[in-house]
Amino acid sequence: MNHQRVLVLDFGGQYNQLIARRVRDLGVYCDLKPCDMTAEAIRAYAPIGIIFTGGPNSVYEEGAPRVGEEVLRLGIPVLGICYGAQLIAATLGGAVGRAPKSEYGKCTLHIKNEAPMSEGIPSESVCWMSHTDYISAVPAGYEVLAATDDCPVAVYGNIGEKIYGIQFHPEVVHSEYGNAFLKNFLYRVCGARGDWTMAGFAEEQIAAIRARVGTGRVICAMSGGVDSAVAATLVHRAVGDRLTCVFVDNGLLRKNEAEEVMSVFRDGLGMDLVKADAADLFLDALRGVSDPEKKRHIIGKLFIDVFEREAKKIGAADFLVQGTIYPDVIESGKGKSAVIKSHHNVGGLPEKVNFQGIVEPLRDLFKDEVRRVGLALGLPERVVWRQPCPGPALAIRIMGEVTREKLETLREADFIFRDEIAKAGLEREIWQYFAVLTDSKTVGVQGDFRTYENVIALRAITSVDAMTADWARIPFEVLEKVSTRITNEVKHANRVVYDITSKPPATIEWE
Hints:
Layout: E1 5-10, H1 16-25, E2 29-34, H2 39-45, E3 49-52, H3 69-72, E4 78-81, H4 83-91, E5 95-111, E6 124-137, E7 143-147, E8 155-158, E9 163-166, H5 178-189, H6 198-213, E10 218-221, H7 226-239, E11 243-249, H8 257-268, E12 272-277, H9 279-285, H10 292-314, E13 319-321, H11 326-331, E14 357-359, H12 367-376, H13 381-384, H14 404-423, E15 432-446, E16 449-462, E17 470-471, H15 476-489, E18 493-498
Parallel strand pairs: 1-2, 1-3, 3-4, 4-9, 10-11, 10-13, 11-12, 13-14, 16-18
Antiparallel strand pairs: 5-6, 5-7, 7-8, 8-9, 15-16, 16-17
């Protein structure tokens, strides 16, 4: 990559991926790396700036993550956020301790001194605080740039050294001028050019894939979702007909999805796309299985078996394409991070399939960036904006055992939900929406008869990166139409509920 880069050092805070997203949104590429990265490794990475993230620790506690002072003496601009701001202060001789009054939520920020970091920021604005410790004294040579009513050091810095600290969270939308602070750091302090674009990324990836693959053959597992679609298209642009895509129809897909995939990619885009019908195989293997991780494991293993079988029919291939994206990597465990849930496309080469390597052109992108790459490549909007669906598909949207009858019930309910969202013109406003077949049954009355049937849950969230999400405020009249249609048109469903849980504490999917 020839473009400028910013390094985000991860100290374990809940908003750390969001910081990386904000930097990229401002036109600067960045990587999120572990906080124990050495000064030598940082120098070799050659960033134009470094950001220390927030974290759950107190800098004065034994075992709290730290950085050596040599990192701050590299001559590279540094911005510390929350814990990162406290860490810089403590490392350079300032004072950090328990705040007399903790701050959580919205606070009024007062600008006290002019500096590149605070340029263009009004004298008073709203910021989002989340801390129990505070900086009581800044290091020698540093000045306080902003404060709140209860936090005497909300922003501080050394203009000459180009090192700054921000106690609040500029990366969250609740901080009124948070993006302005980040933009000031990137452009006024670090001298960013803003050369990170999705069109540029696509050109780089096509060239990189072409160079890596050479004259080799490539095979891709095509799901029809935006991730695999964009990944396959990038590779297709790079190697042409030396790419063969395999679409495994596992019988767990949404209504009409298999037909749409074949129509768009084989007939419309001219890709060499082979369909493997394996519904019976998957459903037999899932019989009697209720545990979600077991479902994922069974589906993932079977997928490899089917894919291996089809690959042997096609002939020798040198590389495997996967649509892995950044949230998949993070949630499956990155460095010291916890595994939230396993993702089928993270973890290296399948043991039973003999490839030279994996091609993962989207591994460093968030979902909205993938969509922008798809548009830059000229993919149809119906492909780019296709609703996300996990690898195990409807199997993890059915609570308990997966059966043909349950699949049919969920397919119809999910189709109705998506249809009414489209009719209401809410497709672009809601990041993801789908139906879930719960393992609960309730008493109902349909016609003159008592029923005892399934509860359908509706899940709709707003997000930009899948790392955090809020439940979507769908108008009641739309929810009413969905509920009425499901209870009237779908067999074995007599009640509809709406999930109003954010992420965290919940995940987007139910399993």
